[in-house]
């Protein structure tokens, strides 16, 4: 597995802290000789013997991770040895007596860090899929060391001067366009992370990053502790309204937790959401709601408010050292939005319509509750419950009825079909035992080209919730595609938190969860379709990389998937046409809730990172800011501040959560390109343009240029508003997503 040095540095911090944190050091211009670093590496290897985390990957498919040979005890010595080895490589590049060139500097960086990359493939799995108190202790200990490691790269002046020398002549050098982009990306990664600083400023920058690395880990672990510490166990007389499939899964989960005969409601979205939708017990709905939305906000040792305040202050101080007015300005300079103002312009264009729709939805729910003599005023723990009642009344659409046709395994087959039609990919199950996996639930498929049979990569699926696995759904890579130093194939992974059914029973999911399954598969297809030469070019622009995955959600509701893969789990009969008609008719239903809870989080994220954070009280700031925005009292942010891991467990989405909506503008606009095509969503010509321009190039092409090559113009907000059933704004707002 090869990945660029700078991408590796970011990955190291990401794995350490759940986000894209920046490294630290004492800001020395040099960080030790090749001999010294090599001696540390050899000493570390000698101490651990043949540490399996360091070993080259062997076996089929170009080598695969040895998930069956690792343990928590391996991580610390492996990280220390691999970091030392990597620093020796860096010293060799920085100390090269020859004049800096693309080959001896940029390509050398891209080639470095193979050993450490292997360690971090395992590290990411343990931090996200297999976390334990023992592993979290290692995370806590290693976070500042990883930050220190990164700063020894980004603040190495000799290395930076070589990169800068190549950057300064990139336009006159004999380089391809992707190579020029690579040089610019690597230079910016250095320059934007303190490489241009000197003296006390450089030292302070390093100290801030080291502290942030620790805070990110603490934030993430606090949220996980509150998820694990607030299970609710129900009796059989407390299940009224809940679907049979949910009850069976809750019983199995309770038995797994040592509470046989009871029913477990865990403090995760996959358990909370259906409970609030179906449970007739209002008192329990409130309890489940409060448990979930108070994660990280319960006082005591796992409270995150003080951590948030310190993170915001440190981020603001750090970017101030680089000359930026605020963190958001620094963060968005290399995003499609370019500036916080452009991002806010998009969100503010949509917010009024979303809030207005919430008022309509609440009025409908209140009227229904009044007609039932419920004698209540709609509260946040009532929203999903009465929303479902209104859905049934207005559209005669029962979400539980829909679930009977949404089997997890059949949805997976539908995704494979879509991948075959659009990408010409074929997925073939890998024989059990041929490829090591980290849990018995994980299955593996080989991905090949349908026409030529050429091997493209492997796809791992870890679908079920369990203790130690973070909530939500995500995609990741264990190995990138590259060609510059011999072809390297992709190892991609999708991870979900579906509740495993009772033995022998299929896993039935909601329509929203089915869309999420397709969404995350879109990320995997983005990985697998890569044709880039260099590891760094497999990276992405945050407000663009969600576009490809959001677009893939659209194929769930295409006729080919509906007619062949949405079949009843008992009878095998396809989902009735009239039920599909109801689903499509209700497509814009509840968009007030969905859009407002998301936008509230995105707006709060941007507000946090554009104000002076001195003396900030996150709890008070959240309340007051939402009041100023006119946040409806009947719902809350999708991610309240104390549990907003996208933003405070790292930096991957910090000042960037707006990116989902930015990408959704592209998604809606691109979907209309398919809808207008002769062959619809399976039109071969449009699909080819999609893959060639928007999936395969990854970050080798500027996203705005890539989108224009696909669509023939910039994206417009109008399609997004139509998709959500909102009024289309005036011309000024219609091009908000394409401002440079």
Question: Mind explaining what this structure looks like?
Answer:
The protein is mostly helical. Among the domains are: 5-224, Neurolysin, domain 3; 229-293, no CATH class; 403-538 and 556-585, Orthogonal Bundle (Neurolysin, domain 3), CATH 1.10.1370.40. It is 55% helix and 6% strand. The chain contains 30 helices and seven strands. The strands form two sheets. It has a five-stranded mixed beta sheet with strand order 3-4-5-7-6, sandwiched between helices. It has a two-stranded antiparallel ribbon with strand order 1-2. It starts with a helix and ends in a 6-residue tail after the last helix.
State the CATH class of the domain at 5-224: Mainly Alpha
Described by strand count, sense and barrel closure, the largest sheet is: 5 strands, mixed
By helix and strand content, what is the structural category? mainly alpha
Quick one: overall form?
Answer: globular
Count of beta strands: 7
CATH architecture of the domain at 5-224: Orthogonal Bundle
Total of helices: 30
The CATH topology of the domain at 5-224 is given as Neurolysin, domain 3
Q: Strand order, main sheet: write it out.
A: 3-4-5-7-6
- Helical coverage, percent range: 55-70%
Tell me the radius of gyration: 25 Å
- Bin the strand percentage: 5-15%
The low-pLDDT segments are 1-41, 736-740
Average pLDDT rating: 90
Roughly how many Å apart are the termini? 35 Å
